[in-house]
Protein backbone atom coordinates (compact mmCIF):
# COMPACT_ATOMS: atom_id res chain seq x y z
CA UNK A 1 0.00 0.00 0.00
CA UNK A 2 2.78 2.48 0.93
CA UNK A 3 4.85 1.69 -2.16
CA UNK A 4 1.75 2.32 -4.33
CA UNK A 5 1.29 5.64 -2.58
CA UNK A 6 4.88 6.67 -3.26
CA UNK A 7 4.57 5.66 -6.90
CA UNK A 8 1.43 7.76 -7.31
CA UNK A 9 3.03 10.74 -5.58
CA UNK A 10 5.90 11.07 -8.10
CA UNK A 11 5.57 14.28 -10.09
CA UNK A 12 2.57 15.48 -8.11
CA UNK A 13 2.48 19.04 -6.84
CA UNK A 14 3.24 19.61 -3.16
CA UNK A 15 -0.23 21.09 -2.71
CA UNK A 16 -1.75 17.70 -3.57
CA UNK A 17 0.41 15.63 -1.23
CA UNK A 18 -1.71 16.41 1.81
CA UNK A 19 -4.83 14.95 0.20
CA UNK A 20 -2.89 11.86 -0.91
CA UNK A 21 -1.60 11.34 2.63
CA UNK A 22 -5.16 11.67 3.90
CA UNK A 23 -6.30 9.05 1.38
CA UNK A 24 -3.50 6.75 2.50
CA UNK A 25 -4.55 7.02 6.14
CA UNK A 26 -8.20 6.50 5.26
CA UNK A 27 -7.30 3.33 3.40
CA UNK A 28 -5.28 2.12 6.37
CA UNK A 29 -8.17 2.88 8.70
CA UNK A 30 -10.58 0.85 6.59
CA UNK A 31 -8.25 -2.14 6.50
CA UNK A 32 -7.56 -1.97 10.24
CA UNK A 33 -11.25 -1.64 11.03
CA UNK A 34 -12.18 -4.47 8.70
CA UNK A 35 -9.62 -6.73 10.38
CA UNK A 36 -10.93 -5.67 13.77
CA UNK A 37 -14.42 -6.87 12.84
CA UNK A 38 -13.45 -10.36 14.05
CA UNK A 39 -13.50 -9.10 17.65
CA UNK A 40 -16.71 -8.72 19.69
CA UNK A 41 -17.74 -5.08 20.28
CA UNK A 42 -16.88 -5.31 24.00
CA UNK A 43 -13.43 -6.83 23.38
CA UNK A 44 -10.66 -5.11 25.40
CA UNK A 45 -7.08 -4.67 24.18
CA UNK A 46 -4.00 -2.57 24.80
CA UNK A 47 -2.33 -0.43 22.17
CA UNK A 48 0.75 -2.60 21.61
CA UNK A 49 -1.31 -5.77 21.21
CA UNK A 50 -3.55 -4.33 18.51
CA UNK A 51 -0.57 -2.89 16.62
CA UNK A 52 1.21 -6.25 16.77
CA UNK A 53 -1.90 -7.97 15.41
CA UNK A 54 -2.08 -5.53 12.52
CA UNK A 55 1.62 -5.99 11.79
CA UNK A 56 1.29 -9.79 11.87
CA UNK A 57 -1.41 -9.56 9.21
CA UNK A 58 0.85 -7.48 6.95
CA UNK A 59 -1.46 -4.47 6.92
CA UNK A 60 1.46 -2.04 6.63
CA UNK A 61 3.70 -2.56 3.59
CA UNK A 62 6.83 -0.51 4.17
CA UNK A 63 9.31 -1.46 1.48
CA UNK A 64 10.15 2.19 0.78
CA UNK A 65 9.21 3.81 4.07
CA UNK A 66 11.92 4.67 6.61
CA UNK A 67 9.68 4.42 9.70
CA UNK A 68 9.32 1.06 11.42
CA UNK A 69 6.12 -0.94 10.95
CA UNK A 70 5.30 -0.43 14.62
CA UNK A 71 5.64 3.34 14.29
CA UNK A 72 3.22 3.40 11.36
CA UNK A 73 0.87 1.16 13.32
CA UNK A 74 1.15 3.48 16.31
CA UNK A 75 0.26 6.51 14.17
CA UNK A 76 -2.77 4.65 12.80
CA UNK A 77 -3.88 3.63 16.31
CA UNK A 78 -3.51 7.22 17.57
CA UNK A 79 -5.60 8.44 14.63
CA UNK A 80 -8.35 5.96 15.47
CA UNK A 81 -8.29 7.18 19.08
CA UNK A 82 -8.35 10.82 17.98
CA UNK A 83 -11.39 10.14 15.78
CA UNK A 84 -13.02 8.11 18.58
CA UNK A 85 -13.13 4.90 16.56
CA UNK A 86 -11.18 3.44 19.48
CA UNK A 87 -11.92 4.67 23.01
CA UNK A 88 -10.25 4.10 26.40
CA UNK A 89 -12.04 1.48 28.48
CA UNK A 90 -10.11 1.41 31.77
CA UNK A 91 -6.64 1.65 33.24
CA UNK A 92 -5.14 -1.75 34.04
CA UNK A 93 -3.35 -1.26 37.36
CA UNK A 94 -1.68 -4.68 37.15
CA UNK A 95 0.15 -3.91 33.90
CA UNK A 96 0.19 -0.13 34.15
CA UNK A 97 -1.44 0.48 30.77
CA UNK A 98 -4.69 1.68 29.25
CA UNK A 99 -7.18 -0.86 27.92
CA UNK A 100 -9.24 0.15 24.90
CA UNK A 101 -12.44 -0.88 23.15
CA UNK A 102 -13.88 -0.23 19.73
CA UNK A 103 -16.45 2.55 19.83
CA UNK A 104 -19.67 0.68 19.06
CA UNK A 105 -21.50 3.86 18.06
CA UNK A 106 -18.95 5.12 15.53
CA UNK A 107 -17.78 1.67 14.51
CA UNK A 108 -21.20 0.10 13.99
CA UNK A 109 -21.56 0.85 10.28
CA UNK A 110 -18.10 -0.54 9.48
CA UNK A 111 -18.51 -3.46 11.86
CA UNK A 112 -21.79 -4.80 10.55
CA UNK A 113 -21.09 -3.87 6.94
CA UNK A 114 -17.80 -5.73 7.17
CA UNK A 115 -19.44 -8.86 8.51
CA UNK A 116 -22.24 -8.73 5.96
CA UNK A 117 -20.11 -8.07 2.89
CA UNK A 118 -16.98 -10.07 3.63
CA UNK A 119 -17.61 -13.76 4.10
CA UNK A 120 -14.10 -14.63 5.29
CA UNK A 121 -14.41 -12.98 8.75
CA UNK A 122 -16.70 -14.38 11.42
CA UNK A 123 -17.36 -14.61 15.15
CA UNK A 124 -19.03 -17.94 15.91
CA UNK A 125 -19.59 -20.41 18.73
CA UNK A 126 -17.89 -23.77 18.46
CA UNK A 127 -21.28 -25.46 17.93
CA UNK A 128 -21.70 -23.43 14.72
CA UNK A 129 -18.45 -24.52 13.03
CA UNK A 130 -20.24 -27.05 10.85
CA UNK A 131 -22.51 -24.37 9.40
CA UNK A 132 -19.95 -21.92 8.03
CA UNK A 133 -17.80 -21.86 4.92
CA UNK A 134 -14.53 -23.76 5.11
CA UNK A 135 -12.98 -20.92 3.08
CA UNK A 136 -13.06 -18.63 6.10
CA UNK A 137 -9.76 -16.84 6.74
CA UNK A 138 -10.36 -14.88 9.95
CA UNK A 139 -12.20 -16.54 12.81
CA UNK A 140 -13.01 -15.75 16.42
CA UNK A 141 -14.28 -18.92 18.04
CA UNK A 142 -16.26 -18.66 21.27
CA UNK A 143 -15.47 -21.82 23.18
CA UNK A 144 -16.87 -23.62 26.19
CA UNK A 145 -15.17 -27.01 25.91
CA UNK A 146 -12.79 -27.00 22.91
CA UNK A 147 -12.98 -30.79 22.75
CA UNK A 148 -11.82 -33.31 20.12
CA UNK A 149 -14.97 -32.68 18.09
CA UNK A 150 -14.12 -28.99 17.80
CA UNK A 151 -10.55 -29.91 16.96
CA UNK A 152 -11.68 -32.21 14.15
CA UNK A 153 -13.97 -29.51 12.74
CA UNK A 154 -11.12 -26.95 12.69
CA UNK A 155 -8.94 -29.25 10.57
CA UNK A 156 -11.13 -28.51 7.56
CA UNK A 157 -10.36 -24.78 7.72
CA UNK A 158 -7.04 -25.17 5.93
CA UNK A 159 -6.94 -21.58 4.64
CA UNK A 160 -7.39 -20.00 8.06
CA UNK A 161 -5.05 -17.03 8.73
CA UNK A 162 -6.29 -15.78 12.10
CA UNK A 163 -7.71 -17.87 14.92
CA UNK A 164 -8.80 -16.12 18.11
CA UNK A 165 -10.18 -18.42 20.80
CA UNK A 166 -12.50 -16.70 23.25
CA UNK A 167 -13.49 -18.45 26.48
CA UNK A 168 -17.08 -18.39 27.62
CA UNK A 169 -17.41 -17.40 31.30
CA UNK A 170 -18.38 -20.96 32.25
CA UNK A 171 -15.58 -22.53 30.21
CA UNK A 172 -13.84 -25.62 31.59
CA UNK A 173 -11.04 -25.74 29.00
CA UNK A 174 -7.77 -27.04 30.48
CA UNK A 175 -5.93 -28.32 27.41
CA UNK A 176 -5.56 -27.87 23.66
CA UNK A 177 -6.27 -31.04 21.63
CA UNK A 178 -3.03 -32.63 20.46
CA UNK A 179 -3.69 -32.64 16.70
CA UNK A 180 -5.59 -29.38 16.33
CA UNK A 181 -2.80 -27.57 14.46
CA UNK A 182 -1.83 -30.28 11.98
CA UNK A 183 -3.70 -28.81 8.98
CA UNK A 184 -3.56 -25.08 9.77
CA UNK A 185 -0.32 -24.37 7.91
CA UNK A 186 -1.45 -20.94 6.71
CA UNK A 187 -2.24 -19.67 10.20
CA UNK A 188 -0.54 -16.32 10.83
CA UNK A 189 -2.16 -15.28 14.13
CA UNK A 190 -3.07 -17.53 17.06
CA UNK A 191 -4.61 -16.06 20.20
CA UNK A 192 -5.19 -18.35 23.20
CA UNK A 193 -4.90 -15.79 25.96
CA UNK A 194 -6.76 -16.35 29.25
CA UNK A 195 -7.26 -20.07 28.54
CA UNK A 196 -6.72 -22.32 31.55
CA UNK A 197 -4.04 -24.39 29.79
CA UNK A 198 -0.69 -25.48 31.22
CA UNK A 199 0.93 -26.54 27.92
CA UNK A 200 0.71 -26.36 24.16
CA UNK A 201 0.73 -29.48 21.96
CA UNK A 202 3.88 -30.15 19.94
CA UNK A 203 1.75 -29.93 16.78
CA UNK A 204 2.11 -26.15 17.04
CA UNK A 205 5.40 -26.71 15.21
CA UNK A 206 3.31 -27.30 12.06
CA UNK A 207 2.22 -23.66 11.99
CA UNK A 208 5.13 -22.67 9.78
CA UNK A 209 3.48 -19.39 8.72
CA UNK A 210 2.78 -18.21 12.28
CA UNK A 211 3.79 -14.61 13.04
CA UNK A 212 1.88 -13.97 16.27
CA UNK A 213 1.28 -16.21 19.31
CA UNK A 214 -0.58 -15.03 22.41
CA UNK A 215 -0.80 -17.34 25.42
CA UNK A 216 -0.75 -14.54 28.00
CA UNK A 217 -2.57 -14.92 31.32
CA UNK A 218 -2.55 -18.72 31.16
CA UNK A 219 -0.98 -21.17 33.65
CA UNK A 220 1.33 -22.44 30.92
CA UNK A 221 4.58 -23.86 32.33
CA UNK A 222 6.73 -24.08 29.22
CA UNK A 223 6.64 -23.82 25.45
CA UNK A 224 7.23 -27.05 23.49
CA UNK A 225 10.58 -27.59 21.78
CA UNK A 226 8.74 -27.58 18.43
CA UNK A 227 8.27 -23.81 18.85
CA UNK A 228 11.78 -23.54 17.39
CA UNK A 229 10.34 -24.57 14.00
CA UNK A 230 8.34 -21.34 13.79
CA UNK A 231 11.04 -19.34 12.05
CA UNK A 232 8.60 -16.59 10.97
CA UNK A 233 7.37 -15.90 14.49
CA UNK A 234 7.59 -12.18 15.30
CA UNK A 235 5.51 -11.84 18.48
CA UNK A 236 5.18 -14.05 21.57
CA UNK A 237 2.96 -12.77 24.35
CA UNK A 238 3.50 -14.47 27.72
CA UNK A 239 2.48 -11.70 30.11
CA UNK A 240 0.82 -12.99 33.27
CA UNK A 241 2.03 -16.60 32.77
CA UNK A 242 3.05 -16.95 36.41
CA UNK A 243 3.92 -20.65 36.15
CA UNK A 244 6.44 -20.04 33.36
CA UNK A 245 10.02 -19.93 34.66
CA UNK A 246 12.04 -21.19 31.69
CA UNK A 247 12.03 -20.19 28.03
CA UNK A 248 13.94 -21.21 24.90
CA UNK A 249 13.82 -18.76 22.00
CA UNK A 250 17.27 -19.20 20.43
CA UNK A 251 16.02 -20.30 17.00
CA UNK A 252 13.42 -17.54 16.62
CA UNK A 253 15.78 -15.19 14.83
CA UNK A 254 13.02 -12.93 13.43
CA UNK A 255 11.35 -12.38 16.80
CA UNK A 256 10.48 -8.69 17.32
CA UNK A 257 8.37 -8.76 20.48
CA UNK A 258 8.92 -10.98 23.52
CA UNK A 259 6.25 -9.69 25.85
CA UNK A 260 6.48 -10.86 29.46
CA UNK A 261 7.65 -9.70 32.88
CA UNK A 262 11.22 -11.00 32.63
CA UNK A 263 12.23 -10.14 36.19
CA UNK A 264 9.02 -11.39 37.76
CA UNK A 265 8.51 -14.54 35.67
CA UNK A 266 11.89 -16.01 34.70
CA UNK A 267 14.67 -17.47 36.84
CA UNK A 268 17.22 -16.82 34.10
CA UNK A 269 17.36 -15.55 30.54
CA UNK A 270 17.07 -17.95 27.61
CA UNK A 271 20.56 -18.64 26.32
CA UNK A 272 21.69 -17.01 23.10
CA UNK A 273 19.39 -13.97 23.19
CA UNK A 274 22.11 -12.09 21.35
CA UNK A 275 21.13 -13.84 18.11
CA UNK A 276 17.65 -12.24 18.15
CA UNK A 277 18.80 -9.01 16.53
CA UNK A 278 15.32 -7.91 15.43
CA UNK A 279 14.02 -7.71 19.01
CA UNK A 280 12.18 -4.48 19.78
CA UNK A 281 10.18 -5.50 22.85
CA UNK A 282 12.18 -6.98 25.71
CA UNK A 283 11.33 -5.53 29.10
CA UNK A 284 14.47 -6.72 30.88
CA UNK A 285 17.63 -8.78 30.71
CA UNK A 286 18.78 -10.94 33.63
CA UNK A 287 22.58 -11.08 33.59
CA UNK A 288 23.87 -14.53 34.48
CA UNK A 289 27.29 -16.09 34.87
CA UNK A 290 26.77 -18.88 32.33
CA UNK A 291 27.78 -18.66 28.68
CA UNK A 292 24.91 -17.31 26.60
CA UNK A 293 23.46 -15.35 29.54
CA UNK A 294 26.17 -12.74 30.06
CA UNK A 295 25.83 -9.03 29.43
CA UNK A 296 27.64 -9.39 26.08
CA UNK A 297 24.41 -10.85 24.66
CA UNK A 298 23.13 -7.27 24.46
CA UNK A 299 25.84 -6.20 22.02
CA UNK A 300 23.78 -6.36 18.80
CA UNK A 301 20.26 -5.87 20.22
CA UNK A 302 20.12 -2.32 18.90
CA UNK A 303 16.43 -2.37 17.92
CA UNK A 304 15.29 -2.51 21.56
CA UNK A 305 12.77 0.23 22.22
CA UNK A 306 10.71 1.71 25.02
CA UNK A 307 11.53 0.62 28.56
CA UNK A 308 14.41 -1.71 29.43
CA UNK A 309 15.82 -3.03 32.71
CA UNK A 310 19.24 -4.66 33.13
CA UNK A 311 19.13 -6.75 36.30
CA UNK A 312 21.86 -8.77 37.97
CA UNK A 313 24.62 -6.22 37.38
CA UNK A 314 26.55 -7.80 40.24
CA UNK A 315 27.34 -10.62 37.78
CA UNK A 316 29.46 -8.30 35.61
CA UNK A 317 33.12 -8.80 36.50
CA UNK A 318 34.62 -5.56 35.21
CA UNK A 319 34.10 -2.44 33.12
CA UNK A 320 35.31 -4.15 29.92
CA UNK A 321 32.38 -6.57 30.10
CA UNK A 322 29.98 -3.71 30.80
CA UNK A 323 31.17 -1.79 27.75
CA UNK A 324 30.25 -4.75 25.55
CA UNK A 325 26.56 -4.13 26.28
CA UNK A 326 26.89 -1.02 24.03
CA UNK A 327 23.95 0.77 25.65
CA UNK A 328 24.79 3.95 23.76
CA UNK A 329 23.89 2.17 20.51
CA UNK A 330 20.32 1.39 21.69
CA UNK A 331 18.91 4.64 20.32
CA UNK A 332 15.23 3.67 20.61
CA UNK A 333 15.27 3.13 24.37
CA UNK A 334 13.42 5.80 26.34
CA UNK A 335 13.64 4.38 29.85
CA UNK A 336 16.65 2.53 31.29
CA UNK A 337 16.76 0.81 34.68
CA UNK A 338 20.11 -0.41 36.04
CA UNK A 339 19.67 -2.84 38.91
CA UNK A 340 22.12 -4.64 41.19
CA UNK A 341 21.18 -7.60 43.38
CA UNK A 342 22.20 -8.42 46.92
CA UNK A 343 25.73 -9.72 46.21
CA UNK A 344 28.51 -7.13 45.74
CA UNK A 345 31.59 -9.29 45.89
CA UNK A 346 33.90 -7.09 43.81
CA UNK A 347 33.56 -3.99 45.94
CA UNK A 348 32.40 -0.39 45.41
CA UNK A 349 35.33 0.71 43.26
CA UNK A 350 34.64 -1.93 40.61
CA UNK A 351 30.96 -1.00 40.67
CA UNK A 352 31.92 2.63 40.00
CA UNK A 353 33.77 1.55 36.87
CA UNK A 354 30.97 -0.77 35.72
CA UNK A 355 28.29 1.91 36.06
CA UNK A 356 30.50 4.41 34.25
CA UNK A 357 30.65 1.94 31.33
CA UNK A 358 26.86 1.57 31.11
CA UNK A 359 26.16 4.96 29.56
CA UNK A 360 22.77 4.87 27.76
CA UNK A 361 21.85 6.68 24.56
CA UNK A 362 21.42 10.45 24.75
CA UNK A 363 17.70 10.30 23.96
CA UNK A 364 16.55 8.53 27.12
CA UNK A 365 13.80 10.25 29.08
CA UNK A 366 13.88 8.21 32.29
CA UNK A 367 16.73 6.66 34.28
CA UNK A 368 16.61 4.48 37.39
CA UNK A 369 19.62 3.19 39.33
CA UNK A 370 18.89 0.67 42.07
CA UNK A 371 21.05 -0.95 44.79
CA UNK A 372 24.26 0.55 43.41
CA UNK A 373 27.02 -0.05 45.97
CA UNK A 374 29.67 2.23 44.51
CA UNK A 375 30.94 5.50 45.92
CA UNK A 376 30.39 7.74 42.91
CA UNK A 377 27.56 8.16 40.44
CA UNK A 378 28.74 8.13 36.80
CA UNK A 379 30.00 11.29 35.12
CA UNK A 380 27.57 10.84 32.23
CA UNK A 381 24.52 11.20 34.50
CA UNK A 382 24.95 14.99 34.46
CA UNK A 383 26.21 15.29 30.89
CA UNK A 384 24.49 17.96 28.81
CA UNK A 385 23.99 15.37 26.04
CA UNK A 386 21.13 13.92 28.13
CA UNK A 387 18.99 16.80 26.92
CA UNK A 388 15.71 14.83 26.95
CA UNK A 389 15.90 13.24 30.37
CA UNK A 390 12.84 14.11 32.44
CA UNK A 391 13.08 11.74 35.40
CA UNK A 392 15.90 10.25 37.49
CA UNK A 393 15.33 7.80 40.35
CA UNK A 394 18.11 6.70 42.71
CA UNK A 395 17.22 3.88 45.12
CA UNK A 396 19.38 2.54 47.95
CA UNK A 397 22.69 3.73 46.51
CA UNK A 398 23.91 3.82 50.09
CA UNK A 399 27.59 4.66 49.58
CA UNK A 400 27.05 7.78 47.45
CA UNK A 401 27.83 10.86 49.53
CA UNK A 402 27.23 13.61 47.00
CA UNK A 403 24.99 14.22 44.00
CA UNK A 404 26.61 15.33 40.73
CA UNK A 405 25.37 18.36 38.78
CA UNK A 406 21.89 17.03 38.06
CA UNK A 407 20.44 20.48 38.47
CA UNK A 408 21.92 21.55 35.14
CA UNK A 409 20.00 18.98 33.06
CA UNK A 410 17.68 21.14 30.92
CA UNK A 411 14.61 18.87 30.85
CA UNK A 412 14.82 17.27 34.31
CA UNK A 413 11.51 17.59 36.18
CA UNK A 414 11.53 14.69 38.65
CA UNK A 415 14.36 13.61 40.93
CA UNK A 416 13.51 10.84 43.38
CA UNK A 417 15.94 9.80 46.11
CA UNK A 418 14.99 6.73 48.15
CA UNK A 419 17.03 5.58 51.14
CA UNK A 420 20.15 7.40 49.95
CA UNK A 421 21.58 7.27 53.45
CA UNK A 422 25.11 8.25 52.45
CA UNK A 423 24.14 11.71 51.17
CA UNK A 424 24.58 14.36 53.82
CA UNK A 425 24.02 17.52 51.76
CA UNK A 426 22.94 18.88 48.39
CA UNK A 427 25.19 21.87 47.75
CA UNK A 428 26.56 24.09 44.96
CA UNK A 429 27.81 21.05 43.01
CA UNK A 430 24.21 20.06 42.30
CA UNK A 431 23.66 23.33 40.35
CA UNK A 432 27.22 23.91 39.23
CA UNK A 433 26.53 26.89 36.97
CA UNK A 434 23.98 28.57 39.19
CA UNK A 435 24.12 30.60 42.38
CA UNK A 436 22.56 28.78 45.30
CA UNK A 437 21.73 30.11 48.74
CA UNK A 438 22.85 27.82 51.49
CA UNK A 439 23.04 24.07 51.57
CA UNK A 440 20.31 21.43 51.94
CA UNK A 441 21.24 18.98 54.67
CA UNK A 442 19.86 15.49 55.38
From TrEMBL:
Record carries keyword Cytoplasm: no
Domain of life: Eukaryota
Entry keywords, A to Z: ATP-binding, Nucleotide-binding
Matches recorded under InterPro entries: Leu-rich_rpt, LRR_dom_sf, LRR_R13L1-DRL21, WHD_DRP
Organism: Cinchona calisaya
Keyword Nucleotide-binding: yes
Pfam families referenced in this protein's UniProt entry, alphabetically: LRR_8, LRR_R13L1-DRL21, WHD_DRP
Protein name: Disease resistance RPP13-like protein 1
Limits of the R13L1/DRL21-like LRR repeat region domain: 296-420
Domain Disease resistance protein winged helix: 38-87
Amino acid sequence: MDSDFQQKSKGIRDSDLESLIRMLYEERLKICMLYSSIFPPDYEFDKDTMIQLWVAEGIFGLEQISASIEEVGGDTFDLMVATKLIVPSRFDMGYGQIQYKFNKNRFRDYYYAGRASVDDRLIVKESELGNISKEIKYLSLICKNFDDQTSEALKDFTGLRTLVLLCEPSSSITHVPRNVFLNLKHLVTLDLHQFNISELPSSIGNLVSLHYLDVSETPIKHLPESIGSLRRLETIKLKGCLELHHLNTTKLIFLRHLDLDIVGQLNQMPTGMGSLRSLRTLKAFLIGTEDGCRVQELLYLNELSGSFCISGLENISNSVEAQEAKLQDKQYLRKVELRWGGCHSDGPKVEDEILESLQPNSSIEELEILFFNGFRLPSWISDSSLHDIVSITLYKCKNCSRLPSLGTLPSLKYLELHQMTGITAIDHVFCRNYKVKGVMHF
